[in-house]
Amino acid sequence: xxxxxxxxxxxxxxxxxxxxxxxxxxxxxxxxxxxxxxxxxxxxxxxxxxxxxxxxxxxxxxxxxxxxxxxxxxxxxxxxxxxxxxxxxxxxxxxxxxxxxxxxxxxxxxxxxxxxxxxxxxxxxxxxxxxxxxxxxxxxxxxxxxxxxxxxxxxxxxxxxxxxxxxxxxxxxxxxxxxxxxxxxxxxxxxxxxxxxxxxxxxxxxxxxxxxxxxxxxxxxxxxxxxxxxxxxxxxxxxxxxxxxxxxxxxxxxxxxxx
Length: 259
Ligand code: PGA
Description:
Number of strands: 8
Number of helices: 12
Mean pLDDT: 96
Distance between the termini: 21 Å
Oligomer: single chain
Shape: globular
Largest sheet: 8 strands, parallel, barrel
Strand content: 15-25%
Bound molecules: 2-phosphoglycolic acid
Structural class: alpha/beta
Low-confidence stretches: none
Order of helices and strands: EHEHEHEHHEHHHEHHEHEH
Helix content: 40-55%
């Protein structure tokens, strides 16, 4: 992480966990650990039904509320969908797109990920764009080619001013929810590659400023080593974001000041 040039972001992904009644005790337990500095942001991407509670209760604790998905459409007859306008109107600042669980279980294509990315940017919400290879792709030596393709596809039609409002998360599929974390060298290698792709697409300045996160079984024990890597600017954390003490330890591993 390099706080001189870019923001550190610790983002929790609650996935389909936690009830509205869980939000208050969670925030209470976590709030003393949230950094005061603006260079480190704590985000919780919560299920849609928890957004209102997290916005209300998290505000004072400096927890920024994120969503986990968005429609590519702006409004209309799309039962079950939530638009970027609605998320923005509610006060949501970040939204995950292209998570491997949505790519796999909901057949989300790179084109759809791109449409959602652009819908979010247009409404002032920062997309957290997830990319990552499968174990098979890694073993076949296809990691970098796949990452290259996914990053470019997600950002098609996104210009350099729009890019300022994007975050990329490298999440190797084989590491998600498996307890099998990428080594810090593996995480750094791919996050660095993503920065090089951004440099190629948008220039050195944009590459230096974009926050690139690592996700995949990041936990209280391995966070410090992963976050110490120069191109890893934070984490996208699933399982360990459900336990306030573990999440607090990960936040503290950034070294950001909460005095
Ligand atoms: P995990 O999930 O930390 O439970 O591996 C990360 C993610 O899916 O974003």
